[in-house]
Structure formats: C-alpha cells, structure tokens
Amino acid sequence: MMWSPVITFLLLTLSTICYGENPGAKILVKEQGLKKGVEYLVNKLMSNNTEYQLPDVSGSENIASEDMNYEFTQIRLVKFHHGNILSDWVPETGMHVSMENGSATINCNWKIDSWLIRDSGRGILTISGLSISMMMGLRRIDPGVPSISLLDCQSSIHNVDIQMLDGVSYVYESLKQPLQDVVRATVNRQLCSAIRSQSTKWDESVSHLQLNVTLNPFIDLDVSLVGNPEITDSYGCLGLKGLFRTHNESHSEAAFSPAPLNISIQDGAMIYIGVSQSSLASLASAYYSAEFLTFQVSHMEGSKALTTAELATYIPEISQHFPNSLPVKILMYATRTPMVFLHSKNITVQFGGSLQANAYSSEAKHESIFSANIVASFQVNMSMSEAIGARGMNLTASMNLNRLQIEGSQPKENKVAVTEKAVQQLIHGLIIPSINENLSRGIFISSSFLKNATVYPEEGFATLAANIQ
Ligand SMILES: *[C@@H]1O[C@H](CO)[C@@H](O)[C@H](O)[C@H]1NC(C)=O
Ligand SMILES: *[C@@H]1O[C@H](CO)[C@@H](O)[C@H](O)[C@H]1NC(C)=O
Ligand SMILES: *[C@@H]1O[C@H](CO)[C@@H](O)[C@H](O)[C@H]1NC(C)=O
Ligand SMILES: *[C@@H]1O[C@H](CO)[C@@H](O)[C@H](O)[C@H]1NC(C)=O
Ligand SMILES: *[C@@H]1O[C@H](CO)[C@@H](O)[C@H](O)[C@H]1NC(C)=O
Ligand SMILES: *[C@@H]1O[C@H](CO)[C@@H](O)[C@H](O)[C@H]1NC(C)=O
Ligand SMILES: *[C@@H]1O[C@H](CO)[C@@H](O)[C@H](O)[C@H]1NC(C)=O
Ligand SMILES: *[C@@H]1O[C@H](CO)[C@@H](O)[C@H](O)[C@H]1NC(C)=O
Ligand SMILES: *[C@@H]1O[C@H](CO)[C@@H](O)[C@H](O)[C@H]1NC(C)=O
Ligand SMILES: *[C@@H]1O[C@H](CO)[C@@H](O)[C@H](O)[C@H]1NC(C)=O
C-alpha cells in the first residue's frame, strides 16, 4: 500500500514525459482516404515507370531430362496494371496494401544452352493474376520525421506466358511450359525483394522531408511529427507540431502548449485536418512580430475614397474642424498579439491596437483627426467552397463587432475627442463593411486533391473536413 503514492507519482511523471507535448495540429485519414491516397500514389509511381529495368535472371533447370542453362537479360517492365488495390489501416502498426489480379508485360533477351539446342533471341513475357500483399509500418523517428518500413511482403503469380520471338519455334513449344514455371517462380521471388529495396528508398525520402516549411520571407511553419501516429481500424492520425514562428524568434516555444485536440469524426469526409487555438495563436504572434498587422482600412481595394464629410456622419464634431471636405485615410494597427478563441459555435478574435484617422490636404501633407487605442472583439464566420476556375478551395469569411473599448486617454494632439460609441459606429458602419468586402472575395488555397472541403470551429480548434479525389 505504501508504494502506491510513489508509483502514482512515477506514472504521472512518466506520462508527462511521454505525452507532455500535445500536437498543435492533427491530420486524420479515414479508410476511404487511405484508399484514395494509396491509389493516387500507386498511379503516380507507376505512370512514370513505364520502362522499369529488372535484374537479370539466369540458372539451370532439368527440362525433359536434359540440363538446360537459361539466361534472361535486359528485362524491362514495359506495361503494368496494378489490378484492384486494397488498403486498410492496421491498428498500432501501419497499413496493409495489396494489389490483386494485376498484370504486366515484360520485354527481355533470352539465351538457352543445352546439348540439344543453343539459341538466343528476344522474348515477351505476359504476366497475369499478379497479387502482392504488403504490410507497412509507420512511425515517428527523431527529429520528428516519419519512417516507413516493409514488415511483410507476399506475392503470387497465377500465369506467365512466354513468347519467344526469334529461334526455332517448334523447339520452344515443348520447352514453353517448364520455362514458364521457372520464370514464374523467379519473378515471384524477385518481386518482394524489389519492393523491399524500393521501400528502403521511400523511407529514405520521407525521412528527409523538410518539415520546417517556409511560408514567406519572415514566417516558418513547423509540421514535424509529435509522437507516433495513432492508428485504429478506421483511421490513421498524425500529430503535428503546428507551430508558426518568425525566423528570428526562438523563445516562443515555451509558451506553445496546445490543449488535447480531439477531432470529432463525422460520416462522409475522408480526411480531417484539425488546427488548435495555440497554433493560430502562434500564427498571430508571428504575424505580429513580423509587423504584418497594419491595415489601411478605409482605402481597401474596391471601396471608394473616404472624406471628412463622410466621417462627420459618425462624428459630427469633425465638420467644425474641416469645413472643406478632405480625403481621409484610416489606419488600424495591432499594438499586441491578437488573440483567437475557437468555440464549437463561434470564433472570436480579440484585437488590441491603435486606430488613426488622418485628413489629407495634399498627397504629402496630412493632419491627424483623431487617434485612439482600442480593444475590440470580433466574431468571425468562415466558409469553404470550391474555387472557380482553378484547382483549389476558396476560403471566405465575414466578421462582426462584438465589443469595443477605448483604452487610456486620447492623445492631446487629437483635433476631435471621440467617444466609445462614435468609434463603435464608425467601425460598424465603415470599417467592418470594408473588411467584409475584402474577406468575401475569398482566399484561394491551392490544392489538387482535396474536394468538397468544409471548415468549422470546435471547442479549442478548427477542423477542415474534405474528400480526396
Ligand atoms: C516523373 O517524371 C517527371 C518528368 O520526367 C519527373 O520530374 C518526376 O520526378 C518523376 N516522378 C517520379 C515519382 O519518378
Ligand atoms: C482479372 O483481370 C482480368 C483482366 O486483366 C479480368 O478479365 C478478370 O475478370 C479479373 N479477375 C478477377 C477475379 O477480378
Ligand atoms: C525545425 O526547426 C526547429 C527550430 O529551428 C528545430 O528545433 C527542429 O528540430 C526542426 N525540425 C525538423 C523536423 O527539422
Ligand atoms: C474524443 O471524443 C470521443 C467522442 O467524440 C470520445 O469518445 C473520446 O474519448 C475522446 N478522446 C479523448 C482523448 O478525449
Ligand atoms: C524579427 O524580425 C522582424 C522582421 O524582420 C523585426 O521587425 C523584428 O525586430 C525582429 N525581432 C527580433 C527580436 O530580432
Ligand atoms: C461562443 O461559444 C461559447 C461556447 O459555445 C460561449 O461560451 C461563448 O459565450 C460564445 N461567445 C459568443 C461571443 O457568442
Ligand atoms: C471565392 O468566393 C467569392 C464569393 O462567392 C467569389 O466572389 C470569388 O470569385 C471566389 N474566388 C475563387 C477563386 O473561386
Ligand atoms: C455568422 O453566421 C450566423 C448564422 O448563419 C449569423 O447569424 C451571423 O450573423 C454571422 N456572423 C457574421 C459575423 O457574419
Ligand atoms: C484586402 O485584399 C487584398 C487583395 O485581395 C489584400 O492584399 C489585402 O491585404 C486585404 N486587406 C485586408 C485588410 O485583409
Ligand atoms: C462533392 O460533392 C458533390 C455533391 O455533393 C458530389 O457529387 C461529388 O461526388 C463530391 N466529390 C467528392 C470527390 O467527394
């Protein structure tokens, strides 16, 4: 009994060591998604390898009570059809991929040597009823990259047909069957060893994947793996770091501690990508450190130029100071990292910054109308649709002002003293429509294989659910 607190303590300590780091993002792939993905990969790998060189085959066989040496060289796979592809997740291990009833056409040179006959020529092998079954292991290795391994491989060939194009045909008719048996056994032996060496190459290339992705000259995204993939009968799930950072930012990592992210699987979609609130917070922080959060809100593309007269409809006092209407520019910039809150029914963004309105008497000369430090909370809606005229998705959004407060006292050089209510109305009537006009045009996300994507918030994260085509 006296040991149990110690053991509990040890277990807790161990569990924080092993699971201390939650992924900031997750990619969950359902069986149908795996199937589509494997089909895509097989087609991609095979479409290029129309001419695949295979190792030479030689040996000696006792055929019709004669010892016969044979040699097949210059063996080239010229046509391959994989047949039916089946794939499943294998819980806690990886995946099982099989091809059934595939076929192949192979060109080769042959040489036969026995006391009865010595001859050579070209030949065509047609292989049918080809089946390959592979068990692949999938895990994480340091420093957070995937590793794949071939755990098991089995193959069988139902039928081989040899056509010998040169030489004396009647001789080969009698040799054909035994030769076909030899070739079938040999090709079958070679298949899995060829796949084994290929899978070593695949592992080599996935383990060299660059998982610190450069998004723009200032911001990186770290998508290295956090922990081994979680694999069940119905899905495989990769936990990714999901941390955005500026190139010169090294200290932010300690503050990055995502909450557990539990994607709710809904019927239908093949792939789910969950992005945590922490991950979005690191994005906001990186944008803020890179000084990207300055908006000229009144002069966004498409919206007409703003004037002091127009501004006076929100803040009447302005017309006293600017009897002649002048063009106005409103600048809004963040003075701290914006915060994003994801809930199951709503997304809220909290923005702390400064709002400045300047009147331009000429291109180069301007004077401040007012400036104010604000804390504003916005509610955001997002939706995803197919992009028009390009392969990809179109993310559109709209926002609403929830709350606004003016922080601190207004600067002395303000011509106009603004009230909270006036700024609220200004943001509501002028700035939000202008931002929404911009957001409604959509952000294009290039993607050649995601289809019918939807995006929705959940408690603490946002999910993108899609099909794979
Ligand atoms: C396929 O062929 C293209 C062009 O020849 C080449 O750039 C690409 O790397 C090849 N892909 C594979 C998987 O071999
Ligand atoms: C195997 O493939 C051949 C054509 O390549 C087809 O005629 C045959 O019906 C297939 N058999 C099965 C069991 O799918
Ligand atoms: C990504 O970059 C970080 C910081 O520069 C580094 O600690 C980490 O090992 C890198 N991850 C990979 C997978 O290269
Ligand atoms: C995730 O959610 C499902 C139900 O949606 C629940 O059964 C499961 O226990 C949750 N897992 C974790 C780790 O919270
Ligand atoms: C990081 O880079 C940004 C953009 O180049 C720069 O504005 C900022 O001052 C830099 N921060 C540090 C801590 O060096
Ligand atoms: C957003 O949703 C959460 C829980 O679903 C709720 O507690 C919160 O009040 C909502 N916020 C707004 C601004 O509607
Ligand atoms: C995105 O959606 C908006 C609103 O429906 C539309 O105006 C815009 O043309 C779309 N953009 C693309 C690239 O599909
Ligand atoms: C978001 O959508 C809800 C329901 O469709 C709607 O009531 C609300 O006004 C929308 N909010 C914004 C900011 O567009
Ligand atoms: C408005 O849209 C343009 C291009 O569509 C973009 O460059 C600009 O950053 C957007 N502004 C805001 C505040 O989103
Ligand atoms: C996308 O949705 C449409 C309509 O619901 C459906 O017809 C189509 O098959 C879907 N595409 C994919 C790849 O799931």
From TrEMBL:
Superkingdom, natural source: Eukaryota
CC terms in the record's Gene Ontology section: extracellular space
Main location: secreted
Cellular compartments annotated: Secreted
Positions of the Lipid-binding serum glycoprotein C-terminal domain: 265-466
Molecular function in Gene Ontology: lipid binding
Pfam families per UniProt: LBP_BPI_CETP, LBP_BPI_CETP_C
InterPro entries, A to Z: Bactericidal_perm-incr_a/b_dom, BPI/LBP/Plunc, Lipid-bd_serum_glycop_C, Lipid-bd_serum_glycop_N
Leader sequence residues: 1-20
Lipid-binding serum glycoprotein N-terminal domain residues: 32-249
Entries under Gene3D superfamilies matching the protein: Bactericidal permeability-increasing protein, domain 1, Bactericidal permeability-increasing protein, domain 2
Domain writeup: The N-terminal region may be exposed to the interior of the granule, whereas the C-terminal portion may be embedded in the membrane. During phagocytosis and degranulation, proteases may be released and activated and cleave BPI at the junction of the N- and C-terminal portions of the molecule, providing controlled release of the N-terminal antibacterial fragment when bacteria are ingested.
UniProt function note: The cytotoxic action of BPI is limited to many species of Gram-negative bacteria; this specificity may be explained by a strong affinity of the very basic N-terminal half for the negatively charged lipopolysaccharides that are unique to the Gram-negative bacterial outer envelope.
Protein name, per record: Bactericidal permeability-increasing protein
Organism for this UniProt entry: Engystomops pustulosus (Tungara frog)
